[in-house]
Amino acid sequence: MSPLVKIRSERDRMSAVERRIADFILENAQLLRDYSSQQLANALGISQSSVVKFTQKLGFRGYPDLKYSVGEAIGRSEEGVAEPPAARAGDALGSMLWQLKTQAEEATRLINRPETMREWVEAIASAGKVFLIGLGEDDLHARVFALRLSLLGIVAIRHFDVGRMAAQVAMSAPGDVLVVFSEHGKHPALVKIARYFREQRGRVVTVTRHTSNPLRAMADITLAVAGHDDASYVQSLVYQSSVQQLLDTVFVHLCEGDEARHARLVANLERIQHMLEP
Asked: What whole-number distance in Å separates Cα of residue 224 and Cα of residue 111?
């Protein structure tokens, strides 16, 4: 596992000091080679021993080992995407994009523990109702996932309008699930809806970037998504691809985990096909 992916995956379970070190490394990975452990400690206003303990807790022999691993990871990444946008053309463009998506999907898989995925599957499978909301591009995932849940016979209520969702959430009951899709997890209205849903004793699942954010902090189950690129238009595509991979994985688990659900899916697909036939 890339050291940067490992740091992201462990961040939420770190102490406050450890999170400061982790955030500095994640945000300044390119500059880490110029920092000694003492210089890093001075920059953060902490002790050198805190830096050493942080690296050892992650499984590295010491700070130099971590610094070398981060440098290697950056080097491998740059080898695959070093071409400037102007040079991204023809087959090379498609290959580059495929590689970026594959790397992001693998990183996303690694930072979401199997037990977290199982917990999400079980929460949806046992829910009386599943509410889904996402704004902008995030609504695309909410809409498609809601459709797939309904094909399995799971009651799925999806809205892209915050006001309507607030009204629907008022009808939630203990054991229901709210799935919030929000790339950056900072939209105030979504935070308010999630907070109210928890007050109704429902469970909140968030799908956001792996960075810390208000929605992720208050969720019962958090799914973190990786996906970065210097070009914003590429970064968006990579992120969306990683989210879709997560949802596809959950859908397959739901299909294979219950024969009755799978039978309903087959019956519903056959009924839809029959209705669409001329």
From this structure: 7
CB 48 within 8 A of CB 57: no
Question: What does the pLDDT look like over 37-70, one tens digit per residue?
Answer: 888 888 888 999 999 999 988 888 888 888 888 8
- pTM for the model stands at 0.71
Residue 4 · residue 70 · CB < 8 Å: yes
- Residue 1: what pLDDT? 57
The 3-state secondary structure of 80-138 reads: HHCCCHHHCCHHHHHHHHHHHHHHHHHHHHHHCCHHHHHHHHHHHHHCCCEEEEECCCH
Residues in a beta bridge with 204: 178
Q: 84-92 long-range contacts, Cβ below 8 Å, gap at least 24?
A: 85/231
> Quick check: 234 and 100 in contact, CB under 8 A?
yes
Summarize pLDDT for 226-275 with one digit per residue, the tens. Answer: 877 667 788 888 889 999 999 999 999 999 888 888 899 999 989 888 88
If you write DSSP's letter for every residue of 242-274 in order, what string do you get? HHHHHHHHHHHHHHHT-HHHHHHHHHHHHHHHH
The half-sphere exposure of 213 on its side-chain side, counting CA atoms within 13 A, is 23
Q: Chain-centre distance of CA 39, in angstroms?
A: 32
Owner of token pair 């050493």: 52
